[in-house]
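step: validate -> pass
step: tokenize input -> pass
step: predict -> running
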Amino acid sequence: MKQAMVVCHRGASLWAPENTLASLEKAIEMGAEAVELDVRPSRDGILYVMHDATVDRTTNGSGRISDLTSAEIDALDAGIWFGPDFAGEQVPRLDRFLDACKGRIATYVEIKDGDPGEVRDMLAVRGMLSEAWTFSFDQAIRAEARAKVPDLRRMVLFIHVGSVDRAVAQEAQIIEFHEDNLDPDLVAAAKRAGLITQMFYAGSDRAVFERAVRCGVEQMNIDQIEVFRSVENDLLTPV
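step: predict -> pass
step: emit ->
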């Protein structure tokens, strides 16, 4: 077994405000190989890195991001809610975020809203397509990505497709499992089919991380980076 790729969920979001440049820099500092980020457009069509449909939870503002102009979003403080050390942190525009990732860390772009073709082009112009992949919970966006941007690697969730064969039929490159459907036989079948295996887990239970390591999951989309690496090192270090 070899070490899994660590994908920092919304950046190193336990140490810095999620989906900000600060959380990205912390993820890189902690040795993560990839960063997961969420994308939504402003009212005037600028793509921002933001998880929620509204800015209320993670900024000092309020309202739907799709109703706010880029000037209004740029003026928000996206760090003070997390702690005084992060006061003045902005909601990053996607282009600025990708510039900070280029040559330093791979990108997993979850498109909450927006044009997958625009996301693809922003990655391509920076030479980042080969290390990037995308997903959306919006079925229409998933279908659009499959039809319009076949060179942007796509991930599917096992809970959506229900089988490895269907993931292959949908021309996915990555399949993501969760705690309740992680199974060594499924992981092995996915690998045989040429899929990259990924797991999303937002918790910190060492037993769950141990199962993932023993199953040979190749990519871990997680918050608890240090706990996972500790478990992994315990299992992979020869006695």
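step: describe -> The two ends are 15 Å apart (CA to CA).
step: cleanup -> pass
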